[in-house]
Amino acid sequence: MTEKQEKILQAALQLFACEGYHATSTSKVAKAAGVSEGLIFRHYKNKEGLVMAILEEGESRLKSLFVDIVMETDPKEVLRKTITMTTKIDPSDYDFWKLQFKLKWELEISGDKKMEPVKMALANAFHKLGYQLPGSEAKLLILFIEGIGSSLLTGPETNQDEIIQLLLKKYDL
Amino acid sequence: MTEKQEKILQAALQLFACEGYHATSTSKVAKAAGVSEGLIFRHYKNKEGLVMAILEEGESRLKSLFVDIVMETDPKEVLRKTITMTTKIDPSDYDFWKLQFKLKWELEISGDKKMEPVKMALANAFHKLGYQLPGSEAKLLILFIEGIGSSLLTGPETNQDEIIQLLLKKYDL
Amino acid sequence: MTEKQEKILQAALQLFACEGYHATSTSKVAKAAGVSEGLIFRHYKNKEGLVMAILEEGESRLKSLFVDIVMETDPKEVLRKTITMTTKIDPSDYDFWKLQFKLKWELEISGDKKMEPVKMALANAFHKLGYQLPGSEAKLLILFIEGIGSSLLTGPETNQDEIIQLLLKKYDL
Amino acid sequence: MTEKQEKILQAALQLFACEGYHATSTSKVAKAAGVSEGLIFRHYKNKEGLVMAILEEGESRLKSLFVDIVMETDPKEVLRKTITMTTKIDPSDYDFWKLQFKLKWELEISGDKKMEPVKMALANAFHKLGYQLPGSEAKLLILFIEGIGSSLLTGPETNQDEIIQLLLKKYDL
DNA sequence: AATGAATGAGGGTTCATTCAT
DNA sequence: AATGAATGAACCCTCATTCAT
Predict the structure, then answer these.
(1) Beta carbons of B81 and A77 less than 8 angstroms apart
(2) What percent of chain B has pLDDT over 70?
(3) For B83-134, how does the pLDDT look when each residue is reduced to its tens digit (9 = 90+)?
(4) B45 CA to F5 C1' distance (Å)
(5) What distances in angstroms separate CA C11 from CA C19, C32, C34, C40, C98, one per listed residue?
(6) Which residue among B71, C29, C68, D97 has its CA within the 20 to 30 Å range from the CA of A166?
(7) Interface of A with B (CB under 8 A)
(8) pLDDT reading at D5 higher than 90
(9) Taking CB atoms and an 8 Å limit, are A108 and B154 in contact across chains?
(10) What does the pLDDT read at residue B110?
């Protein structure tokens, strides 16, 4: 990946995340990246190709967050790690996470499949801990972390930690 | 409001909710409403005016959902009504609710202020029930119901009821 | 002519004169006149009909200015009256005169034909006074007064009187 | 400047001059120039930018006409050159000059400032020649050449030369 | 790899005008 | 006489994309 390619991805990520996919023109991206507009299409074929490249390039960030949960065997630890997941997000990656949410609603491109393994791990953990409806418990907990992520990215200053403490208590952690 | 005005609002709501604001052209709205494109601008001035009109017109739906919670005095009932709130949504209003979420992410127009009274009622209820951090408890619960709403509108078939049952149990309801 | 008709003509005159014909929409006229847009078309059929009505209605203003020159028999008086013609214009009629110039250039609707009798009178006067090329002398003088009128209407504050004095002297008046 | 850019300017000049600014749509310009409409905006940003480009590009024509007058030291020559100025205009530039007049009235964009140096030169010349009100004499003469220019561009066939001869005689040239 | 000219379809919006009331 | 809803064509302009260099 050349230097200009990186510049493009970076500029596009920032713009897509802040202003939205449709509201960001390829010319705006080119200008922000200090690059000719044609170059975007040379490298990524499409505007869609561009956003896909961003998503791919960022997948490692998703995985690094998830792998630690999925690999965990102690069920209590699985819950704890899931609940505190959002605190592990590097603020420099906020744009990327914001983009995930934006795309879900604007283009109905859902990153939910990526969460599937986490959900399985959670369901398994709840099962081991004797919860009666482990699948639904897992779903419920995932809804929560999505909510907390959402409020982290949109809200100006949410007291994330306090909420997480509450949640930990609810699951006896 | 003339018949054509209603047609416009209706078509726009459906399209904005399904395809998004930017992805829906005014000409598409006009076509779907069986109306000349100019008429949209005569009545609503702008594309933005159009979406605002939709939001205003739907405000009653928001309020009718919230008022029952806010007016409740029994704290346990406040929690119960909040948690089961999403079950009260008329499926014919799904488009409107979907639009709320889409706009939050696509245009960063947040309907959160509308939830403020609910949050206050919740905080008050948690306080009465002896919870230690009523404000954060309220915030947490709101994140939950937003999550449930979100999954209800996007997910193909979520088992809403089971999750709600779980949640009720967590709050001893 | 009803009261509303007058309002329309008045508003249209002012707007056409200040902003130009094409730059003035019929809706702007209607709004300025405090009248429904349809009414303009009921009374004047067209936007063009509207401007024509204004022109017709103002023709008396043209004639009243010219008649005094055309009826004059003393050749020197003809010249003098022509040269001082612009001083006779009522400032409340400036819009109308401005419109004349604007239309000449914007729509190439020329009010020059209206000047024809004046030109004849001038040519005749120059002839009587022994000028060698009375026709061209007449044309020249008309160019002058058009220029003075133009500068009177566009320029912020031209010293009209001084120029007129100079001109009178050039013709030994 | 690419070939297509020149085509655009050329077509726009001709259309603006003949039909007026507002009456000429950008699509008409594009069609006349044999160019896609978008290209106009790529190069000139705006319709306004387009007309400004035309004006700028033609400024040399203005200057070349004026410089000869302004640099002249012999006062009589200054007058003579001013009076005969319009005869120096290349008929292939008529469109450009017509545009100057049109814009003055349609958009109230006045090229008068460009004439300022000429006016100064004239005032100076009149002063040297012992005229009593050199400033007003200058103004008067400028009004004349504007008038003759105007009639040259609008009138079908004006006998320009005869009028110029008359005028020269009036100033003893 | 990189540019920038060029395109054509479509964007939101305004326009003059008509029509039912 | 007067309104205001309604229209469809045209408006200026932006878009994603292609192509020659």
Answers:
(1) no
(2) 100
(3) 999 999 999 999 999 999 999 999 999 888 889 999 999 999 999 999 999 9
(4) 15
(5) 12, 6, 9, 11, 14
(6) B71
(7) 20, 22-23, 101-102, 104-108, 110, 133, 136-137, 139-140, 143-144, 146-148, 150-151, 154, 158-159, 162-163, 166-167, 170
(8) yes
(9) yes
(10) 86
Regarding pTM above 0.85, the answer is yes
Confidence (pLDDT) at A6:
97
Chain D hits for C159, CB-CB cut-off 8 Å, are 136, 139
Residues of D in contact with C107 (CB under 8 A): 20
Instruction: Write down the pLDDT at residue D110.
Output: 86
Please give the average per-residue pLDDT across A129-149, as a whole number.
95
Coil vs helix vs strand at C127 = helix
Answer yes or no: is pLDDT of C131 > 80.
yes
Whether the CA torsion A125, A129, A134, A140 is positive or negative: it is: negative
Domain around A27: 3-170
Contacting subunits of B (3+ beta carbon pairs below 8 A) = A
Residue D138: band (very low, low, confident or very high) from pLDDT cuts 50, 70, 90: very high
Q: Are D121 and D78 in contact (CB under 8 A)?
A: yes
Of the residues C47, C136, C148, the best mutation for testing chain D's interface (the one with the most D CB atoms within 10 Å of its CB) is C136
Find and give the residue nearest to F14, measured CA to C1'.
D38
Tell me whether chains C and A touch (3+ CB pairs under 8 A): no
- Cα(B12)–Cα(B19) distance, rounded to whole angstroms? 10
Residues in chain B with CB shorter than 8 Å from the CB of A137 are 166
Given a cut of 80, is residue B157 above it in pLDDT?
no
Whole-number Å distance between alpha carbons of C129 and B2: 75
pLDDT exceeding 70 applies to what percent of chain A?
100
Q: Which residue of B106, B107, B133 is in closest CB contact with A162? A: B133
What CATH number should be reported for the domain holding residue A28? Answer: 1.10.357.10
Mean pLDDT of C162-169: 95
Q: Which of B139, B148, B162 sits opposite A143 (nearest CB)?
A: B148
Q: What is the mean pLDDT of residues C63-78?
A: 95
Q: Which residues of D touch C150 (CB under 8 A)?
A: 143, 146
- Could you give the CA distance from residue C160 to residue C146 in angstroms, rounded to a whole number? 13
Query: Nearest to residue B107, comparing CAs of A22, D167, D70, D144?
Result: A22
With a pLDDT cut of 90, the percent of chain D lying above it is 91
Contact A144, B163 (CB under 8 A): no
Cβ contacts of D148 within 8 Å, gap of 6 or more = C143, D86, D160, D163, D164
CA distance B20 to B25: 10
CB contact under 8 A, D167 and C140: yes
Q: C99-135 burial, b if ≥16 CB within 10 A, otherwise e?
A: bbbbbbbbbebebeeebeebbebbbbbbbeeebebbb
- Looking at the partner chain, which of B102, B105, B143 has a beta carbon nearest the beta carbon of A147? B143
What total number of domains does chain A contain?
1
C154/D130: higher pLDDT: D130
Average pLDDT over residues A138-160: 89
Q: What percent of chain D has pLDDT over 70?
A: 100
Q: How is residue D94 written in tokens?
A: 């008529």
- Give buried/exposed letters for D72-109 (b at 16+ CB in 10 A, else e): beebeebbbbbbbbbeebeeeeebbbbbbbbbbbbbeb
**Given a cut of 90, is residue D112 above it in pLDDT?**
no
**Band of pLDDT at residue A163, cut at 50, 70 and 90:** very high
- For chain C, how far is it from start to end, CA to CA, in angstroms? 44
Percent of chain C residues topping a pLDDT of 70? 100
Q: How far apart are CA B97 and CA B61, in angstroms?
A: 9
